[in-house]
Amino acid sequence: MFYSYAWKGYGLFVIIIGIFWFFTLSLVMSLVYGVSQVKGHEDAILFTTSFFAAVTTWCVGKMLNRSFVTITKDGIKRTERRYAVNHSLYGIPFEYWSLVWVALSLWKAYKTYGHLIV
């Protein structure tokens, strides 16, 4: 595991997930539609990127920040899943960064398609 003042555990992967989805979706869009068609739709790509990054960040964060703990009570051993923040970025748990991705996604959606709402 990595440690820094900015992140704890695998918290840095919040940013790496976003960069991964951006490059993956940009590559897929340019291969499917061609570079000339993608050129004017950067906001739509960022909207989609933010949405996929939010879902991925939530799922990975929930998986990483769960831990198994063996508890002995009255001579009976049992294993429980407990929430322990072992992976965070700037003190915010990994999975809650998905809310930042959702906010970015909604902002990009409004910026791109807001004129259709009125």
What does this structure look like?
The protein has one domain. It is built from four helices and five strands. It has a three-stranded antiparallel β-sheet with strand order 1-4-5, with no helix packed on it. It has a two-stranded antiparallel ribbon with strand order 2-3. The model has no long low-confidence stretch (mean pLDDT 82).
Strand order of the biggest β-sheet? 1-4-5
- Number of continuous helical runs: 4
Helical/strand content category: alpha+beta
Number of strands: 5
H/E order of the elements? EHHHEEEEH
Distance between the termini: 49 Å
Q: What does the average pLDDT come to?
A: 82
Tally of separate domains: 1
Shape category: elongated
Oligomer: single chain
Helix content: 55-70%
Question: Beta-strand level of the residues, as a percent range?
Answer: 15-25%
Please give the largest β-sheet. Answer: 3 strands, antiparallel
Radius of gyration: 19 Å
Residue ranges: pLDDT <50 for 5 or more in a row?
none
Keywords:
118 residues; 3-stranded antiparallel sheet; alpha+beta; 19% strand; two-stranded antiparallel sheet
Structure described in brief:
With 118 residues, this protein is of the alpha+beta class.
What is the fold's blueprint, element by element?
Blueprint: E1 7-8, H1 13-33, H2 35-38, H3 42-64, E2 66-73, E3 76-83, E4 88-89, E5 92-93, H4 97-117
Antiparallel strand pairs: 1-4, 2-3, 4-5
Helix pairs in contact: 1-3, 3-4
